Amino acid sequence: MQHSRSPGCAKYKDFILPLIFTKRLCDVFDDELNRIATNVGSREKAFNIVAMDKKLVRFYLPLKPDDVEQPVWAVIRKLSDKIGEKLTDHLRAIARETHP
After folding, report:
1. Who's near 3: CB < 8 A, 6+ residues apart?
2. Cα(83)–Cα(19) distance, rounded to whole angstroms?
3. What single-letter DSSP state applies at residue 5?
4. Distance between terminal CA atoms of the chain?
5. What is the pLDDT of residues 53-88, one digit of tens each?
6. Measured between alpha carbons, how far is 77 from 55 in angstroms, rounded to an integer?
7. Average pLDDT over residues 25-36
8. pLDDT class for 14, splitting at 50, 70, 90?
């Protein structure tokens, strides 16, 4: 028995996989920020220190929520229009920061 795929499946996959990947990157980056924040006293200080010395983390995400106590994922979660395009823009920015 063969299953046919609807044309929308590929688009769905092309959207969901980068979204899941970005979520994981945000979670790992948050863990590293929180580790640094424990040592320096606040997430605000941790964001600033990491921005100045990106080698303190495995990879740098150029994402900062309006409220630094919120997870970095909040930047992505707040996207409301052209989500796929904006997600791609964020991923490109992450790639540029990771491999300058």
Report:
1. none
2. 10
3. P
4. 49
5. 999 999 999 999 999 999 999 999 998 888 888 888
6. 26
7. 97
8. confident
80 HSE (CA, 13 A, CB side): 1
Residue keyed to tokens 């791609």: 88
Torsion sign over Cα 63, 67, 72, 75: negative
Spatial separation of the C-alpha atoms in residues 75 and 70, rounded to whole Å? 9
Q: What pLDDT does 7 receive?
A: 59
The distance from CA 39 to its chain's CA centroid, rounded to whole angstroms, is 23
Average pLDDT, the chain: 87
Which of 66, 32, 73 shows the shortest CA–CA distance to 50?
32
If pLDDT is split at 50, 70 and 90, which confidence band does 35 have? very high
Distance separating alpha carbons of residues 55 and 11, to the nearest angstrom: 35
Predicted TM-score of the model (pTM): 0.82
DSSP H or E stretch at residue 88: helix 83-98
